[in-house]
Amino acid sequence: MTPKNSEHYKKALKFIPWATQTNAKRLQPGWGEFMPPFIKRAKGCRVWDLDDREYIDYRCALGPIILGYQYSEVDKAVREQMKNGVLFSMASPLELETAEAIIQNVPWIEQIHFMKTGAGACTACTRLARAYTGRQHILTSGYHGYHDCFALGWQNHGAPEILRDYVHEIAYGDLAAVDTAFEKHGEGLAAAIVAPYEWNEDTGEAYLQRLREKCNEYGSLLIFEEVLTGFRLARGGAQEYYGITPDLAAFAKAMANGYPISVFAGKREYMRTLEKTIITITYAGETLSLAASKATMTIMRNEPVHDHILEMGNRLRGGFAEIIKEMSAPAHEAGLPPAPYIQFDVGSEEENTKWQNRLFSILFAKGIFPSERWFVNYSHRVDDIDQTLEVVRQSMSEIL
Ligand SMILES: Cc1ncc(COP(=O)(O)O)c(C=O)c1O
C-alpha cells in the first residue's frame, strides 16, 4: 500500500471496524497493494487517493454516482437549498416537487414515500405488502441490504432464526423455483421482492413475467428491488427496460447522484396502506438530498444521460471483446452496457476469480479503479473509455 494510505489504514482500523462503514469498501487483499483504501476527492469520472494517485473510476461509489462526481448542477441545487435549511419541524414543499420529478421519469409510479437507504426502502415495501395483504410470507431473490429478513443466508447473521419460516429465497432467473415457491407458499405470500436484473446474465424478462403471472394468480404483490437498477438500467428503471409493471418498488442508489436518499413507491392502491399502518423515519424529509434528487431527475429528463451511458458502456464492452479476441484471452465480455465486465473462463469459479484479481491488481497500479461490474456514468467521455481500454490491453498482456 502507498505510504499515506497505509498509515491512515492502520489508524482507522484501531477505531473503525473494517476501517470503513460499507462491506464492499473493505480492502480486498486479492486486488493487490495498489487498491486504495481511501478516496479523498473525486470529480467527474476520476477519484484521488491519500497519496494523490489518480484513477479513472468504474465503481461509481457502488452505484450512486450516475452523472459524475461533484456534478455542478446537482451540487449547486444542494448549496441553494442549504440557504433555507436542512431539516424542518414539518414537511418541506420540496418533498412534493421531488416526488413529481421522479414520477415524470418513472410514470407507472402513483405515490412515493421517501427513505434514506436501500435496505430501508426494501423493508418498507415488504412491510407494506404484509400490511396490505394480511399475509406473512415473502419470496426474495438477490441482495436487499442488511435488515433481518434479508440476512438469513449470511454466516453468523444475528437475525432471529424463526424468520426462516416466513422468508423464502430463490435464485435469480430460476423459473422452476418461482413455480415451486408459489405452489408451496402462494396462499400465504404477501409479496415477491426481486432485483429485476442481477448484473450477470440477463434472464430478466422471462423471470419477471413469470413472477408477475404468479403474483396475479395468488394475490401477492410484486416488488421490484430497483436499488441498483433504478435510473441506471434506464431512466424509467426496470419497468421501462423490461416492460413489466410491479405493484411496488424500492429505488435508491442513482436517484440523487450520491446524496443519501431512497424511496418506496408504487400503485396508489398499495401505497394507501400507509393510511392504516406506520412506516416512518426522522430524516426522510432531509432537504439537501431531496434537492439533489430533484436536480438529478431534471437532468436525466432534459439531457441524453442514458443514451450517453449506453454508448460509453457499449464502447467499453466492445473494447473488452476486442482485447480478449486480440490476445486469445481465456475470457469473454459480459453484462448489459450500463455495467459491462470481463468474465474469465479459465476453469473453476475460484480460478476465474484469481485471474480477475490479477488483472485488477495491475489496473489499480496503472490508475484504473475497476469494479466487478464496471459502472459507467454521464461524465465518462470517449477519451476516458479509450484510455481505460489501453490500460486494460497492457494489463491483460501482463497476466497472459
Ligand atoms: C441491490 C441492492 N439492494 C439493496 C442494497 C442496500 O442498500 P443500502 O446499503 O443503501 O441500504 C444494495 C446496496 O449495495 C443493493 O445493491
What does this structure look like?
This protein has 400 residues and is an alpha/beta fold. The chain has 2 domains: 3-69 and 304-399, Aspartate Aminotransferase, domain 1 (Alpha-Beta Complex); 72-302, Type I PLP-dependent aspartate aminotransferase-like (Major domain) (Aspartate Aminotransferase, domain 2, 3-Layer(aba) Sandwich). The chain has helices at residues 3-15, 72-82, 94-105, 118-133, 175-185, 204-218, 237-242, 268-271, 287-302, 305-326, 349-365, 382-399; strands at 39-43, 46-49, 54-57, 111-115, 137-141, 167-169, 189-194, 221-226, 248-251, 262-266, 331-334, 341-344, 368-369. A 7-stranded mixed beta sheet has the order 4-10-9-8-7-5-6, with helices on both faces. α5 (175-185) packs parallel to α6, α10 (305-326) runs parallel beside α12 and α11 (349-365) packs across α12. It is globular and about 60 Å long. It starts with a helix and ends with a helix. The relative contact order is 0.15. The model has no long low-confidence stretch (mean pLDDT 96). Pyridoxal-5'-phosphate is lined by residues 62, 117-119, 122, 143-145, 195, 225, 227-228, 252.
Oligomer: single chain
* Largest sheet report: 7 strands, mixed
What helical percentage do the residues reach? 40-55%
Question: What characteristic shape results from the CA principal axes?
Answer: globular
Number of domains: 2
Please list the strands of the largest sheet in the order they lie side by side. 4-10-9-8-7-5-6
CATH-derived architecture of the largest domain: 3-Layer(aba) Sandwich
CATH class of the largest domain: Alpha Beta
